[in-house]
Design a protein that fits this description.
Elements: H1 8-26, E1 29-30, H2 31-38, H3 42-54, E2 58-63, E3 73-77, E4 83-90, E5 93-100, E6 105-112, H4 118-135, E7 140-147, E8 150-151, E9 157-158, H5 171-176, E10 183-187, H6 188-201, E11 208-214, E12 216-223, E13 226-228, H7 259-272, H8 280-301, E14 305-309, H9 315-328, E15 336-340, H10 345-358, H11 362-368
Parallel strand pairs: 4-7, 7-10, 11-14, 14-15
Antiparallel strand pairs: 1-3, 2-3, 4-5, 5-6, 8-9, 11-12, 12-13
């Protein structure tokens, strides 16, 4: 168990993170207002804001009001204090962006990933990062990469059939030896969960599951407002969910992304053979498979909401899924089923994830989660 929460230094980091986030989100803002919103004493807020100013993350933004009396100083984020680079893998290429320390995207681009070999994939990743570095308007504080596989605690990638040449590869180690700034790597769907949660439902829900189905499949889990990774960062690997069958399976699915991902691949291949809208049988079978997986999530996690995203989903399919799930889950435990059509949810999550490395909140994020 992590006992860091009771330590004064960690409490200070928690408070510092809180004040920084409030300034970034609500600035220009005064110290008295920060004290009121945060619940921290004014002397404590004074010290924390002064520390943020000294660290160059926050700047003065003028005085509050126009009266003749004493007016409070306002503070806001220093947009020129630094930036970071985010690369999010999707369909054979990287969605890339440069964002400032408030999370605002300043530049976006796309870069191909050469997956013909592990070295070629690394070199094309470095090429993308170097291209973004040339466009950076200020010091790059961190580099983040979203990948279609599980990232083990030691940095190795597993369950990554979309980039097979990186199976077992330590991407963090490889990039860290090439760049001096911090490098953070995370699973793509976990990042989508972070992105959707913090931009849409964090004020409403504490527990959500984000399910992606398209070029592969997976999920990201937010529990009590924090990204849940599991003991080896393998949580949410939906593609590896096994069938509920009395017949033993002789095939090894671990090298192909899992049983359920292979089943989805078969459905996608079937659809691609059609020259018209997917037929009724296709939708019935696919909705049956996905509704079973969703019902299992409900039974195990009992989330407030389940978000469906990715190219496989459409309004008709989701309508069928909701109908089928209602047969498995009690009405009192049914979560809201939401449809995410935003193609930038993943890279938005990566931007938010990188904020932990790009600001003074690095250790806090590592200790407490996103």
């Amino acid at each position: 168990m992590n006992n860091a929460i009771g330590k004064p230094q960690v409490l200070r980091e928690v408070n510092l993170s809180l004040i920084q986030k409030l300034i970034f989100d609500k600035g220009p803002i005064s110290k008295p207002e920060l004290s009121r919103i945060s619940g921290l004493s004014l002397p404590t807020v004074n010290k924390l804001v002064d520390e943020l100013v000294k660290a160059n993350y926050v700047v003065e933004a003028g005085l509050l009001g126009r009266g003749a009396g004493r007016r409070a100083m306002l503070f806001e984020a220093n947009h020129n204090a630094g930036c970071f680079i985010a690369l999010y893998y999707n369909w054979g290429k990287y969605q890339a962006c440069i964002a400032d320390l408030t999370g605002k995207m300043l530049f976006e681009g796309n870069y191909a990933l050469d997956s013909s070999s592990g070295q070629a994939a690394l070199e094309s990743t470095i090429l993308a990062i170097d291209s973004m570095l040339k466009k950076a308007p200020s010091e790059v504080k961190a580099i983040g990469v979203g990948v279609p596989g599980a990232v083990l605690p030691d940095g190795r990638l597993i369950g990554i059939p979309k980039i097979k040449v990186w199976e077992g590869y330590n991407l963090i180690e490889a990039l860290s030896s090439h760049y001096s700034m911090p490098v953070c790597i995370e699973n793509d769907v976990k990042l989508s969960a972070v992105g959707f949660y913090h931009t849409h439902v964090s004020s409403t829900f504490d527990n959500i599951v984000y399910i992606y189905a398209g070029n592969g499949m997976g999920s990201g889990i937010i529990l009590n407002g924090r990204l849940y990774r599991g003991s080896s960062n393998f949580s949410g690997e939906l593609g590896f969910m096994a069938p509920l069958s009395l017949t033993p399976n002789k095939e090894d699915y671990t090298s192909t992304g899992g049983y359920l991902e292979g089943l989805l691949r078969d459905f996608v291949l079937y659809e691609q053979k059609k020259e018209h809208t997917p037929d009724h049988l296709y939708l019935e079978q696919l909705s049956g498979v996905l509704s079973g997986a969703i019902a299992n999530y409900i039974a195990v996690l009992n989330p407030d909401a389940i978000i469906l995203g990715g190219e496989t989903f459409n309004d008709k399919l989701i309508e069928l899924i909701v109908k089928k799930v209602s047969v498995y889950a009690p009405k009192s435990s049914m979560p809201e089923i939401l449809y995410d059509k935003n193609p930038k949810t993943g890279i938005t999550g990566l931007v938010l994830f990188c904020l932990g490395e790009a600001t003074i909140r690095t250790q806090l994020v590592q200790d407490l989660g996103v």
